Give the backbone structure.
Amino acid sequence: MSPDPLFTATNFGALALKHRVVMAPLTRMRAQQPGDVPHALNAEYYGQRASDGGLQITEATDITPQARGYRWVPGIYSPEQIAGWRLVTDAVHAKGGLIVSQIWHVGRISHSSIQPGGALPVAPSAIAPSGSHTDADGTPVPFETPRALEIAEIAGITQDFVQAARNAREAGFDGVEVHGANGYLLDQFLQTAANKRSDIYGGSIENRARFLLEVVDAVADAIGADRTGVRLSPWSTVGDMGDEDGRVLWDYVVGELGKRGLAYLHLIEPRVTWTSDDTPNDINAPNAAGLFKARFGGPILSAGGYTADTARGTIAAGQADGVAFGRLFIGNPDLPQRLRQGVPLNPYNRATFYGGGREGYTDYPFLGGTSGGVR
């Protein structure tokens, strides 16, 4: 019998994985207040979902107060936050797991009530996305027109990413993932829908990719390229994104990242809708991992509504080296074990995805019926 593709070993740079079932970054909005500090409940949650040689990617983590776009999301810029994350990494490492911190800046996907001093959110250009956001009280409000960043400020944000990566290593993380996806700041610079600049950070594809590549280079210099991953979402329209020549843009960006010896490239498949429970069989869309695997030349992690069978098929076909599961990990703290054994999965409760306490967070049962927090 041939080995199960999901349960063979591989390396993502310096990270030695014993299986390919990766926990995707999942915003859960349960940081302790005040200060957006990770705490014991978060450590329990991540510790539950850790497995020997398994990789977890944290929820997106604010690199500075300006990077904030949502309430109750943890940061990694204060001593208290670093100490809180140490609780998490210790819990994961105690089970033989690996964990990286996803570091982000939301850019225009924010509101002045959330920003320091009531300032406007920042972006490559003064273009508001369509739709609405939530303010500091959780009330839906129209997006504000952001303030376009000055060139000098861009260099400062690059250094904020670097400090966040250093803080992550101090907190015990095995590496970081630079969030360049889903319509947040780095993605905003990449795509023409949000970037109308006429300086060295706008216009040509090379200029629009400059900020992302500067951040990646600086973070890799600080903690090692083999501990640095990057997440992208080619062709995604999340955050009102889009590009006039997407295939050429993504081909260039992936090719440039491939020159840098990174730990991995994490690609969100274009089929992802974020607001439904569609699976790959329900949506007809290109396979980003398959398109860009050769172009990148290193380990590819693919995310996008996978089932166990579609994940196995993607890895067996050589289109990806690992598959990131999100919603299935929410409802199943022992997901790798369940997939290995082919047993039924717990249903997840979408109503408890964001905010709250233990309910829908650490109370999902393990195999055998034991409740969350026992193992």
